[in-house]
């Protein structure tokens, strides 16, 4: 072939190749250094590539007709020349303008006939051309998705990773995203199962990597949700599983992990606002046992506040689900329920129990997220709400997830009563009773009207059970109804009244905000800040009504003493109420005792004053004359005190007028105001957390967004361990234990000199000990000699 082109062996050797065979790697390096000097060699190799393609196609046709096996050297030469031309294409854009399309057509038409090595070489060449901007991703996306369905594992891994990485590198605002999504979604809607499966895997991976995430790419989430109705059962199961497991997915990419670590380092810690007086009382006031109780309560309050602030500061992606982007969630849930209900018998389908369970969970998640009305779903769940059903906790979790405040209680009541009757009775197992109580609590948390007074009082009796799981479930149910409707409980279960009695909401009742939430806290911020700083500002801006002014208006001494004590008590009460954020439960007992003692003192003082008034009128007249003299003498001082109180009142009015109000700012709040509202809200939550022993009833929106974990319904239940689990616990307990060895083995392995105990045996004994030992040995030897020659005889028979 070299002779036909007019090339001599010397010229071929000078170009880095012999007359028989080209050295492609050496020629590739020289072409990159001097493209113009090797244009002839490039045309030669390009013609060889075309000839190799024709020869390979002829061999593929012959192998298809069973003439003989193909020659492997042809495929190897074709792959080498394809990679060489892919590397040098950017240096010869005009000469190799048709090469990318020829290589693409080769992979599209002859992919099945190619061996695995040649397919990978051609795919790598196409990826190299796309990286060199000779091809675009739109030209290769559909082709790479098609070749993934062939069955070549290496090729599938190569093309899939290339598609994902290429789309991830694109800009967020790149307009090509819509075209790529259209290609993948159209392939997902095809009837071919293998191609639809690869398209679904691509969409799910890009959604997991948060590339096609958000309202901008909502069509991706909608396509994954619509795949639940695909004709292929494998596609349907894959889509259902992805929708259920999306919230538990963690990114495995190293770059994402490093970014998350940096974000966690830079994330501020939760800001906990606890009153200093509460900390002081927990550490310094009361007995040792009361201090421990106060400290434990303070720690619980701080943990709850930190948890809530951490949850609020986290990104909203923790509760994100592709189901949020459904255009018509009601139609989606009804269609999926109708597919679940189709079958020979009512409530049963031809699908496997695992598939049915996934469909139930997806329907329940959709109902909870969008607060849908699908009343037939609760009737369907009654067929599976039985203790002997497989994975019954997941079915009950789906029932809880489908409950929200927009569902009428009459529709859920049959399901609720079936759970009560099937799980919570005396002949049921302890595990079933515990699960039933937890499910009842979660359902009543979402729909308060389900519970009746008689049923609640019966369930509250389980708090005395010896099983921890049952008693904990009953106590949590009592704690819930202390918050939402304590009137249903008996008096001893209602607890200490710490505030206004909760009123249960009626069906359809919604709290509508007419203003910025918690804006009333901003209006009281001055008073709150003064109470946090101390009592100094309160003393400076005190209203008229001090002890001096009151003494001026009271004529008798007895009255002044009595009023003075009452005023001091009132001032103390006001200071404790205004300047502290401690709840009544921490110091409630102490305050009640003080109030009782104060009331007793005032009653005794009133009785003494009445008895003194009844004794005689002369003393009263004398006291009255003394009071008049005190008025005349202290007139200037009283006038001065009144003047100072008026000045204090003026300063108070001026300070109030200087504060900016919402009306002056036209109701517009600044960023500083919102930060102040956030701090005040945290302070208020701290006070409520300290005042409340039970748990706070969460918002209905938060309950609908949060996924119900089936494992939480089995809290405190001790399951029987398998032999493998028991062996793991045994081995874990032996980790710190030293391996058993006898003393002889330890002595033999010992390295070094003798021990102190061994050295003591070798020490010389004292002289007295040596003499006593020698005398003892002599005596023992003498006794042995005396008894050795005599034969011990028995008793004589004739005696």
Automatic annotation (TrEMBL):
* GO BP, sorted A to Z: protein transport; ribosomal large subunit biogenesis; ribosomal large subunit export from nucleus
Record bears the keyword Glycosyltransferase: no
Cross-referenced Pfam families, in alphabetical order?
SDA1_dom, SDA1_HEAT
Which stretches make up the SDA1 N-terminal domain?
84-465
Biased segments, Basic and acidic residues type: 730-739
Q: What is its main location?
A: nucleus
Keyword annotations from UniProtKB, A to Z? Nucleus, Protein transport, Ribosome biogenesis, Transport
Q: Where is this region: Disordered?
A: 252-271, 279-325, 524-633, 730-799
The residues covered by the SDA1 middle domain are 589-733
The answer to keyword Transport applying to this record is: yes
Q: Which family does it belong to?
A: Belongs to the SDA1 family.
Q: What is this protein called?
A: Protein SDA1
Q: List the source organism.
A: Raphanus sativus
């Amino acid at each position: 072939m070299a002779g036909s082109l007019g090339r001599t062996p010397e010229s071929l050797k000078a170009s880095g190749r012999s007359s028989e065979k080209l050295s492609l790697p050496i020629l590739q390096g020289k072409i990159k250094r001097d493209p113009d000097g090797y244009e002839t060699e490039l045309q030669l190799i390009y013609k060889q590539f075309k000839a190799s393609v024709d020869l390979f196609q002829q061999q593929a046709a012959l192998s298809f007709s069973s003439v003989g096996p193909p020659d492997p050297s042809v495929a190897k030469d074709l792959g080498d020349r394809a990679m060489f031309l892919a590397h040098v294409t950017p240096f010869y854009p005009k000469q190799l303008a048709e090469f990318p399309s020829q290589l693409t057509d080769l992979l599209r038409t002859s992919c099945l006939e190619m061996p695995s090595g040649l397919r990978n070489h051609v795919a790598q060449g196409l990826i190299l051309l796309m990286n060199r901007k000779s091809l675009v991703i739109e030209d290769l996306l559909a082709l790479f998705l098609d070749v993934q369905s062939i069955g070549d594992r290496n090729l599938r891994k190569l093309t899939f990773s290339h598609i994902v990485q290429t789309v991830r590198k694109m800009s967020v605002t790149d307009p090509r995203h819509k075209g790529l999504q259209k290609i993948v979604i159209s392939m997902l809607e095809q009837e071919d199962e293998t191609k639809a499966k690869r398209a679904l895997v691509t969409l799910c991976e890009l959604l997991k990597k948060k590339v096609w995430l958000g309202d901008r790419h909502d069509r991706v989430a909608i396509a994954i949700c619509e795949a639940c109705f695909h004709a292929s059962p494998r596609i349907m199961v894959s889509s259902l599983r992805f929708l259920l497991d999306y919230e538990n997915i963690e990114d495995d990419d190293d770059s994402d992990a490093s970014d998350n670590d940096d974000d966690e380092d830079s994330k501020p810690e939760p800001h906990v606002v606890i009153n200093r007086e509460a900390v002081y009382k927990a550490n310094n006031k009361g007995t040792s046992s009361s201090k421990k109780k106060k400290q434990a309560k303070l720690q619980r309050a701080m943990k709850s506040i930190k948890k809530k602030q951490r949850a609020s500061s986290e990104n909203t992606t923790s509760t994100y689900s592709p189901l949020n982007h459904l255009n018509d969630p009601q139609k989606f849930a009804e269609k999926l329920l109708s597919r679940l209900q189709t079958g020979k018998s009512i409530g049963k389908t031809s699908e496997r129990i695992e598939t049915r369970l996934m469909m139930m969970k997806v329907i329940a998640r959709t109902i909870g997220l969008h607060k849908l009305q699908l009343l037939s779903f609760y009737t369907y769940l009654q067929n599976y709400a039985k203790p002997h059903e497989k994975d019954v906790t997941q079915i009950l979790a789906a029932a809880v997830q489908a409950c929200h405040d927009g569902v009428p209680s009459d529709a859920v009541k049959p399901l609720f009563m079936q759970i009560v009757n099937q799980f919570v009775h005396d002949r049921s197992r302890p595990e079933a009773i515990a699960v039933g109580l937890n499910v009842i609590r979660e359902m009543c948390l979402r729909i308060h009207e389900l519970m009746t007074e008689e049923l609640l009082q019966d369930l509250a009796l389980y708090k005395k059970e010896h099983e921890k799981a049952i008693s904990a479930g009953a106590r949590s149910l009592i704690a819930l109804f202390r918050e939402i409707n304590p009137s249903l409980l008996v008096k001893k279960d209602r607890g200490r009244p710490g505030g206004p009695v909760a009123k249960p909401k009626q069906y359809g009742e919604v709290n509508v905000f007419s203003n910025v939430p918690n804006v009333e806290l901003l209006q009281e911020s001055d008073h709150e800040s003064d109470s946090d700083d101390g009592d100094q500002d309160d003393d400076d801006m005190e209203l008229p009504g001090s002890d001096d002014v009151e003494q001026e208006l009271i004529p008798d001494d007895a009255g002044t003493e009595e009023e003075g004590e009452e005023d001091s008590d009132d001032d103390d009460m006001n200071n404790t109420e205004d300047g502290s954020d401690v709840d009544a439960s921490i110091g409630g007992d102490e305050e009640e005792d003080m109030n009782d003692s104060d009331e007793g003192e005032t009653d005794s003082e009133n009785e003494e004053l009445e008895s003194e008034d009844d004794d005689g009128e002369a003393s009263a007249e004398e006291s009255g004359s003394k009071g008049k003299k005190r008025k005349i003498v202290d007139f200037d001082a009283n006038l001065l005190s009144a003047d100072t109180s008026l000045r204090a009142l003026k300063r108070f009015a001026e300070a109030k007028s200087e504060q900016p109000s919402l009306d002056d700012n036209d109701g517009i709040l600044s960023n500083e105001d919102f930060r102040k509202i956030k701090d005040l809200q945290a302070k208020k939550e701290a006070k409520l957390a300290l005042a409340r022993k039970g748990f706070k009833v969460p918002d209905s929106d938060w309950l609908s967004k949060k996924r119900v974990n089936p494992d939480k319904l089995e809290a405190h239940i001790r399951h029987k361990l398998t032999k493998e689990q028991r062996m793991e616990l045994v081995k874990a307990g032996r980790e710190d234990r030293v391996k058993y060895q006898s003393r002889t083995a330890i002595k033999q392995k010992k390295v070094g000199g003798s021990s102190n105990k061994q050295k003591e045996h070798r020490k010389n004994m004292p002289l007295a000990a040596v003499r006593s030992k020698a005398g003892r040995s002599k005596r023992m030897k003498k006794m042995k000699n005396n008894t050795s020659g005599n034969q011990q005889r028995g008793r004589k028979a004739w005696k």
